[in-house]
Amino acid sequence: RLVQNMSTIAEYPAASDCTTSRVLKIAVIGGSGVGKTALVVRFLTKRFIGDYERNAGNLYSREVQLDGDQVAIQVQDTPGVQVNANGLSCTDHVTRSIQWADAVVMVYSVTDHRSFDLISQLHQLVSNAHGERSNIPPIILLANKADLLHVRRVDAQQGPLLASALGCFFYEVSASEDYSQVHGAFHRLCRELAKQQPLPSQPSVTTVGS
Ligand code: GDP
């Protein structure tokens, strides 16, 4: 049984060591077990680590090339939100993360309809945390575990419909099988952020693979 300590991500440049002054902050939210940590690890290291030390409060960072600019990205993984008798649970950490973030990734698993049902409430949490509608950060909706077709519980059409109703970008991805879709989704979000908050002109810097 491979237990991969997440601290290996420290091999990658930390945002605090960055040569760039620009930091894009992303919060990843969703139900438990939908693959939030797996997606963050996949995006930051290109690897799928199926069995890793669970530590959902982690903040990870690295530098990437974004359309020719060197930017630092910080990704806040969060504990899974669940519904209990009083509504959503575990929301304090999630709310703080959303308030801190410039952009939000909402995740559900195509194998878990309850995680899909949570998304509208999570979107409401993002709206509430940012006050006015004009302050709502860019949001991307990820339908994860697309490789598990035989146990799919959320129809392929449902995700795009919900994303369109909520005004989010949508990607169906598999953290375990497909790096390029995960990379494409996170980069799309970063591009949206960069559009909203133009990057300062940068001096030329060493390229770090993205
Ligand atoms: P979190 O609680 O949302 O952070 O979920 P995790 O990242 O801990 O993932 C929960 C479980 O789902 C782990 O056993 C992962 O290996 C597995 N998992 C995550 N993403 C995928 C995926 O895309 N495909 C498959 N088959 N398993 C995945």
Automatic annotation (TrEMBL):
Q: What species is given as this protein's source?
A: Astyanax mexicanus (Blind cave fish)
| Broad enzyme group | hydrolase
Which terms in the Gene Ontology molecular function aspect does this entry carry?
Answer: G protein activity; GTP binding
Q: What is its EC number?
A: 3.6.5.2
One GO BP annotation of this record: mesendoderm development
Compositionally biased region (Polar residues): 199-209
Q: Which family does it belong to?
A: Belongs to the small GTPase superfamily. Ras family.
Q: Which residues of the full protein are shown?
A: 2 to 211 of 248
Q: Which residues form the signal peptide?
A: none
**Reaction catalysed?**
GTP + H2O = GDP + phosphate + H(+)
Please give the superkingdom of this protein's source: Eukaryota
> Which terms are listed as keywords in the entry?
GTP-binding, Hydrolase, Nucleotide-binding
Protein name per Swiss-Prot or TrEMBL: small monomeric GTPase
